[in-house]
Each structure stands twice: as C-alpha cells, then as structure tokens.
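Hey, why these numbers?
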Amino acid sequence: MVAVQQLLQDGRFPHGGLAAHHHLAALPHAASAPLRSPLQNHKTLLREGGGAQPGRCQPCEPKTGAPPALHLRGGSGGRGAATPSQARLGSAQPSPAQPTAPSAASPSPAEPRSEHTAAAGHGAAILSPPPSLHDSQTPGSIPPPASPPLPIPASLPAQPRSASRRRRRCTPPAASSSARSGSAPGPVLPFPSLPFPSPSPPPLSLPSSSSSSSSSSARPGGKMAAAECDVIMAAPEGAGEPESEEEEARREAESFKEQGNAYYAKKDYNEAYNYYTKAIDTCPNNASYYGNRAATLMMLGRFREALGDAQQSVRLDDSFVRGHLREGKCHLSLGNAMAASRCFQRVLELDHKNTQAQQELKNASTVLEYEKIAEVDFEKRDFRKVVFCMDRALEFAPACHRFKILKAECLALLGRYPEAQSVASDILRMDSTNADALYVRGLCLYYEDCIEKAVQFFVQALRMAPDHEKACLACRNAKALKAKKEDGNKAFKEGNYKLAYELYTEALGIDPNNIKTNAKLYCNRGTVNSKLRKLEEAIDDCTNAVKLDDTYIKAYLRRAQCYMDTEQYEDAVRDYEKVYQTEKTKEHKQLLKNAQVELKKSKRKDYYKILGVDKNASEDEIKKAYRKRALMHHPDRHSGASAEVQKEEEKKFKEVGEAFTILSDPKKKARYDSGQDLEEDGLNMGDFDANNIFKAFFGGPGGFSFEGCE
C-alpha cells in the first residue's frame, strides 16, 4: 500500500485512476476501503475542474508487460484530440481554449499519448500503449505475463449514412445535446449498454478481488477502451439495428402500397403505378407489390410490362394464386393462349374451386380454336372468314399484335385499305420496328397503286427482319409490276399498240391480288384494243377493270365510248350516268346527254335506213331512193298476195313516204338529225297519207300504172 501511494505521489500512473485502483485492489488490506468507479472519478474530476490536485489519488502506471489500454479518440480537428506537442511530451494538461473530456477508463483529463497515435479522422480508434515500467518496477512484485498489443486499425471504416440507418452515439442524449450547444461535455460511456452513472457518486471503496477480476475481464488484459466522440458503429449481422431497419422499410413499403391502393380505387392508375413502384423499390421481395403493379399495368393496357411483374410475383411466391391468375390473363391478352392455359391450370391446382380460372381457361381454349380456323381459311383465301375469326379472338386477346396483323393483311387483300392501314398504324405507334406492321403498311400502299412508297416500307421491313418472306415477295412483285407498266405506257405513247398490248398482258400476270393496279392495266389494254378497232375485246377489258374497282371512272368512260361506237346506246347511257353520279362535271353531263339523244334516236324510225341511204346523202340520192322503195312496197303491186303480206307491205309503203317527207325538207331533216321530237314541232305522222306523196311524186291519175308488172 505504501508503494502504491508512493507511486501515486510520484505520478507513476499517467493513464489515470483505473490502473491505480487495480493496484490498490490487489492489496490484502484494501478490501474494506471505499472504491469509486472510473466513471465516478471521471465525474468528480469534471466537477472539481479536472487535472491532478494535491491530496487526491494520482494516476499510476501499470506494471511492466500490462496490455495497452484501448482509447477511442476523435480526429485531429475534433474535441479531445491531442496536439503534436502533447503527444510528444506527454503533457498532462488539456488546452485551455478547448478542454478535453476525459475518458471512462481514465478519471484524469491529463493523459499522455504515444507517438504511435494516429489521428485518423472523426471516430477513429487509437491505440495508446502505456510507457514501459521496466526501470521502475517495485521490487518483489511479480509482473503479469506480457501480451501482444491489440491489432487495431488506424481508423474505423466509414459507415454509409441512409434514411433508415440511425447514428449510434456513445454519449447519452443529454450529454450530446449539451456538447452541441457548446456546454461542457458530460461523461462518456465505454459501451452503449453500460448504465449511466447516478448524479451523486457513492463513497470511494476498494473492490474485492472478485469485483476486480470481473472489472478487469471487461476487455482483454483488464483494460477498457474510452470513446471521446460520436462514431457510426456498424452493428453485427443479426443484431437489433438491421432488424429495425428492415421493419422500418417494411412499414414504409406498406404505406406506399396503401396509397397505391387508394389511387387504384379512384381509377387513377398512373399514380397507383408510381406508388406501387416505390413500394417495390423499398421492399423488392414482396410478391403482392409486384402483383398490384401488374394489375395496374393491365388496367393501363400495358400487358407486356404487366406480364413481367406477374411472373416476378410468382417467382417470389409460387403459391400466389392472384399472381398466377394475372400472369395467365396477360398471356391471354397477348395471344399466348397455350401459356395462359398452363397458368390457369396452375391456379386450379392451388385452388380447384377458383371460378375465374375456370372461365379464363375456357376463353383460352376458344382463342386456340379461332386461331386454328383462321389458319385454314387463310390457305383457302377466304379472307372474310379470317377477319371474322380474328375479330372474335381479339375480344379475348386485345393486345395480340399477331392477330391484328393477320386481320390487317386480310383487309388489305379484300381491298379494305383504310381499315387495314388503321390497324397497322396503331401497331407502329406502339412499336415502330414491327416488321409485320411495316409489311402490312407497305401492302396497303402497294394495293392502292402507290408502288414507290410501298417499296420503301417493304425495304424497311426487310431491314428489321431480313428473312421476312412476305415482305421480300411483295417487294419483288412491286418492282416488276412498276417496270412492266411503265414500259407499256411508253410503247402506247409511241404508237406501238401491239407491244403495249403484250406488256400490259405480262403485267397482269404478276400479282392477281393487286386489284387497283390490275384494274388500271385492264383499262389500258382496253384502250389499246379500241385503237386496234377490237371494240368487243376493249369492252371486255373495261368490264374486267370495273369488276376489280367499281369506282374506276376511267374504265366506265372507256367502255361507254365503245358502246357508242357499236351503237349500244342503252349500255352507253348507263355507264355515263354512273360517271355523272360520281363526278358531276359539265363534260360528263354533255356525254350523258349525247348518249341519251342517240338512245332516243335509236328508238324512233330510222328514215335513212328505211330509204336505204347514208346520213350524208344528197337530195337527189334521197329522191331516187324514195322512187325505188315506193314502187317496191306499193299495195297495188301486192294485190294478189295474202292479206298478211299485203298488210306488211302497206306498212312499209307508208314508212317510205314518211322518210321522204322528212329527209326531203332541209328544216325537218335538221331537226330529225338533232334528235328533236318532230311531233312536238306539230308534225303528226299518224295522219300521214303515203298515197298523196306518191301521186305528187309520180303525177296525177293515170300517170303511173302497175298493170303488166309481175
């Protein structure tokens, strides 16, 4: 005891009262002496101003070979950091401008530091071994076995700061707040689990050997490290801190999910999607979050994205019934009926009474049936039936591009180009690189005789899918058709009608499905035939043209002209009426009027034909013709014939007189040639007497006699 007191007086325990108390506790007569804990000594020193004072127990040095004390100190710029001079000289006094808070292991604020101390930033752990005591060891004492210094890094690894990670502080909340406000720091706990000291320390008493051994066993070598500043401690795996972080993340994710549910109930699916996404980002291993977002994407019509979320939900939880059901619905909406059937069967394995899965399984079977029928009908070129099947299948698979493409292609083949273009354009708005949609878009232009633009779309489709057979064939046909048609037009302009006829015929054999282009080719060939005076063949070509395209005005006009040339006036009037109803122009109106006049003229008596003269016959030719025809059909000439023959000849004799009366008068002839109604002009041919004309032409009675004529 005397030796220890001597050491205290000599200042041989520079590391504070902890080592001194260890020495005192080892003495046999010190069991009854009161012992203060290091925290109590620490607080007493703070209350009394700190530092070594006369009459108090001075710190003593540990025995030689004692393990070094572990101290947690702040960085070079923090409170309690030793200056370089203090580290070298072992100064026992803190800087008056910035007092240093003593550690829990050292009641005295004055603590020398080794030159091995590393100022490694805020919160770094610094190993400060005590100076060697080999030269001043008390005689007769047995030093404890030497232990190697603890391998402590120069600095603790920096911990990431996040919203869910809390800063663990070594000081109590009260002390921390006082330190932040600038007041004197409070006592610092060596470990967060130790209790805070009571405000009034108990009287100093020396511990028993058992208590000494228990306190010394708190750290290897009987020493405890002191923490002087706030540090971010990394909690071990499985400790309470990560569990609280996980629980906090779950609560936050649940909050996001509830907000998403609220927006979903309001049918604000975009906001619901955003909150479900936040929930997934916060807690990515929850199957229900993916399931909810999949349902939202389905309501937004984004079935392909919804399929990914639904598949992820069942990967996380294979027993998630709603996840399998949503996956099946997405597959079915995208036209994958077989995959949808497997998903619905899985639902029934988990819940055999699930009526929704049972109904959806029937829907998938229906889609498969329509798909098979459509394939057969397409081969039969029954495009209307294919369109019908695809319409029914799309009721269950509204997002299936394959069904839409097949429908659009059939619409184009049926000549319903606006509908086909609308379907293809809708797909291209969602996926501009869809080769099938590009092909259908080009096919519509190709069938509308926009061959140059069609070739551009076919080339673009082949860029996206070089092995696209339909696009390749259509592109080749379009180029060949364009070349043949241009060559035929060139030959026609040059007057080479036979060559033009051959080229148009070759072009017609390239693609029988190209309705509009073939209609133009038929009309062009009909024009060639009319130039070659093959009027009946020309009429046939024009008829084929209007069969392919009943709105093709040029074909109607060409055929009507051919009808006029062959005196088929009724057919000509019908074609001109069709043209005028479609395009009411002055030119078309005049053509119709001319045809109507010719039709009317064809229905009245043809006086030129009755006399057997041409329309351009002169007056003398008309008189000679009348003389001949009148003598031929005069009733007296046929007096010996039957009554029927006499009646017929009398009728013809009368017509010959009418013809001569009209054609011999220049004014009447002009009105007749213009198609005017002669009865409207006051000429009533019903009361006409042919005998009077005959007598006037051949003279009075006895001027002409049929006696002796056979």
About this structure: The CA atoms of residues 333 and 376 lie 23 Å apart.
